[in-house]
Amino acid sequence: MAVTLADIKKLREMTGAGMMDVKKALEEANGDFEVAKDLLRKRGQAIAAKRSDREASEGCVLAKAENGFGAIVAVKCETDFVAKNEDFVGMVKLILDAAMANKPANLEELRALKIGNFTVAEIVTERSGVTGEKMELSDYAFIAAPKVDAYNHLGNKLSSLVAASDANADQTTVHGVNMQVASMNPVALDAEHVAQEVKDRELSVAIEKTKQDEVNKAIEQALRKVGINPAHADSDDHIESNLSKGWLTEEDAQKAREIRANVPAEAEANINMKKVEMIAQGRLQKFLKESTLVEQQYIMSDSKELVKDVLKQNNVTIVDFKRITLNEE
Predict the structure, then answer these.
(1) What is the pTM assigned to this prediction?
(2) 58-185+319-325: CATH architecture
(3) 266-319 residue pLDDT tens
(4) Less CB within 10 Å around the terminal CB: N or C of the chain?
């Protein structure tokens, strides 16, 4: 049976597969659309299986918001060339529209949604078969609130959502805060919303860093006491380097080695833990101030206002935000 251009176009619109792949599938299926669709699906699954161990670090992230609901969808692929392909971006838009229409509760529900005769997961698999690259629907986030704003950064690698408690909240302010979220990547809305495990981890890191600082101070004091510049002996490699340059004598180099070998244990044994914990708490508070949305300096203002001050001035209350990126941070 001869395959017509109209048949090829029809199946391509139904599946999103490439022209040559569609033509070949129709020819093998003798013009039977259902058989041809199965052939395309199986080829996509085979390619996806072969490439399951490949790294998919490129892709497309898109967000959309309307009528009090916003969603972000991220689909990964292997190369930037495919990520910028019109059909690939179109597929992501199609999945995003399905998420907006059906409001799935999680990523698995989104993967199981049907668009036409295929699930979202099958559509991604088929596109993988067309391009020959590994693809995966990697992330999904959503917000339901009286007012939701969506922001898509240039390049389709970063999107964010911000929700306000009032449907009539000032749009300029809400969108500006959304750009803040995209740019500054806050960990939470405010200190109260930071997960306890995050606080515990940051406090633990701060304690260890403070203890190491105290040890380093003891080493520096010991070096200065014997007349050695601490900058010339801050590591064993640096000691050897400065010895070869003549900046340290052999005697000073030996003293520095002994200090670096013996002082740390003594310093650790004599650390004032109350002092360490006080400094670590200060570092934790600094982290919370720099990393929570309302305490950050507002990037859209030249007067170094905090986000919370801008919100208060404009009578806006932000209740939630989401952010997804494929960029390394």
Answers:
(1) 0.79
(2) 2-Layer Sandwich (3.30)
(3) 999 999 999 999 999 999 999 999 999 999 999 998 888 999 999 999 999 999
(4) C
Angle at 243 between CA 237 and CA 247, to 5 degrees: 115
Total number of residues shown for the chain: 329
Q: For the chain, what is the HEC assignment?
A: CCCCHHHHHHHHHHHCCCHHHHHHHHHHCCCCHHHHHHHHHHHHHHHHHHCCCCCCCEEEEEEEEECCEEEEEEEEECCHHHHCCHHHHHHHHHHHHHHHHHCCCCHHHHHHCEECCEEHHHHHHHHHHHHCCCCEEEEEEEEECCEEEEEECCCCCEEEEEEECCCCCCHHHHHHHHHHHHHHCCCECCHHHCCHHHHHHHHHHHHHHHHHHHHHHHHHHHHHHCCCCHHHCCCHHHHHHHHHCCCCCHHHHHHHHHHHHHHHHHHHHCCCHHHHHHHHHHHHHHHHHHHEHHHCECCCCCCCCEHHHHHHHCCCCEEEEEEEECCCC
| Cβ pair 18, 88 in contact under 8 A | no
Annotated domain spans of the chain: 5-50, 58-185+319-325, 196-290
Residue range 123-145: mean pLDDT, rounded = 88
**Average pLDDT score, the chain:** 91
Cβ–Cβ < 8 Å for 64, 74: no
> How far apart are the C-alpha atoms of 124 and 134, rounded to whole Å?
9
Q: Which CATH superfamily is domain 5-50 in?
A: Ubiquitin-associated (UBA) domain (1.10.8.10)
